[in-house]
Design brief:
The chain has about 325 residues and is of the alpha/beta class. The protein has 12 helices and 12 strands. It has helices at about 15-25, 40-50, 65, 95-110, 120-125, 135-145, 170-175, 180-195, 220-235, 250-255, 265-275, 310-330; strands at about 5, 35, 55, 70-75, 115, 150-155, 160, 200-205, 240-245, 260-265, 280-285, 290-295. Helix 1 links the parallel strand 1 and strand 2 (about 35).
Length: about 325
């Protein structure tokens, strides 16, 4: 299998140091990867932190497997970066976006097995003229995806999908609709079969209201929106269950009854997974023509450059990306 490709993300954040830590952990089952970044920046960062990480520029992804055991392979971005730890610079936006574009070309061409992205800082990109809502939408545009991708959060004992994502709660409730639930369910079921090797996935759908609405006594969204969407999914052959009371579907016994939980708003999905595995959760984008994972955290400017950022989530993202890519190869 080809190596994984990792993008540098926001250079003023923790992406560089957690990538260095991931390479240092390569003996613990971290799959081979190469980074798209400035080799001089990574070498200087490693020296300043006192970490023994040899850095080696490569000219092609294929060189990674011969280099990875001894040095961190880096595809050079070809420009000098301006951002300093915790101080982003909009002048770096072309390099940040260029690294993403190069990585997408590599994974779309099969030269990389999967894409793992370090966190970006959207405000800095917006100030430089970036017009996409976020990372995921940009990846979808680069990949030519015709349908909206779906976000999944993964840890070893739980997979969750928020149907509505980064919206104020009032807006999320207003925007919740059966087509959105059906879309998320279809994309999730396909991804579980294709990328996770689950032949007959079971999807559990959370209700929006306490106790899943109490048969309409605490709200009618379960009756008028969520229930009809679940029925439509069942008509397509998907094992969709619910709507379930949100407060009773995330304990250990309940989690064993399904392969993914679909939640109606952001915190309903993220609170349980971050409670179960705060440092090891992985963000997965479903619905792209390639595997994409990322750490389930941001740029962490408050601790950037100090060497204290934890790399568990990036390492988990690398391992999951490799496992999903292997499953996808088998499926193909």
């Amino acid at each position: 299998m080809p190596p994984l490709v990792v993008t540098m993300g926001e250079p003023a954040g923790i992406g560089g140091e957690i990538t260095l830590k991931a390479w240092l952990g390569r003996g613990g089952g971290v799959p081979p990867f190469y980074l798209i970044d400035d080799p001089d920046r990574l070498a200087a960062l490693a020296r300043r932190l006192g970490w023994q990480v040899p850095v080696r520029p490569i000219g092609a992804p294929e060189e990674t497997l011969g280099v990875f055991a001894e040095a961190l392979p880096i595809t050079p971005i070809g420009v000098t970066l301006h951002g300093l730890p915790a101080h982003s610079d909009p002048a770096d936006a072309p390099a940040i976006l260029g690294a993403i574009e190069t990585a997408v070309r590599d994974v779309m061409s099969g030269r990389a097995a999967a894409l793992v992205t370090n966190p970006i800082h959207k405000d800095s990109l917006y100030r430089a003229g970036f017009r996409y809502p976020g990372h995921t939408e940009y990846l979808a545009a680069l990949a030519g995806a015709t349908k909206a991708p779906v976000m999944m959060l993964v840890c070893p004992s739980l997979r969750v999908v928020p149907v509505t994502v980064h919206l104020a709660l009032r807006q999320a409730i207003q925007d919740l609709c059966a087509p959105a639930i059906v879309h998320a369910g279809c994309v999730t079921a396909t991804a579980l079969r294709q990328n996770f090797g689950i032949a007959a996935p079971v999807l559990a759908f959370a209700g929006l209201n306490p106790h899943a609405g109490e048969a309409g006594g605490l709200g009618r969204e379960e009756i008028e929106i969520i229930g009809p969407a679940i029925a439509e999914l069942r008509d397509t052959g998907i094992d969709a269950r619910g709507p379930l009371s949100p407060d009773t579907m995330f304990h250990a016994e309940a989690r064993r009854a399904y392969d993914a939980a679909l939640c109606m708003y952001h915190d309903q999905a993220l609170i349980p997974i971050k409670t179960i595995d705060f440092h090891g959760g992985v963000n997965v984008t479903l619905g792209l023509p390639f595997v994409r994972t990322s750490p389930d955290h941001g740029t962490a400017f408050a601790i950037a450059g100090r060497g204290v950022a934890r790399a568990e989530s990036l390492i988990a993202a690398l391992r999951l990306a490799a496992a999903m890519a292997a499953k996808r190869v088998v499926a193909d």
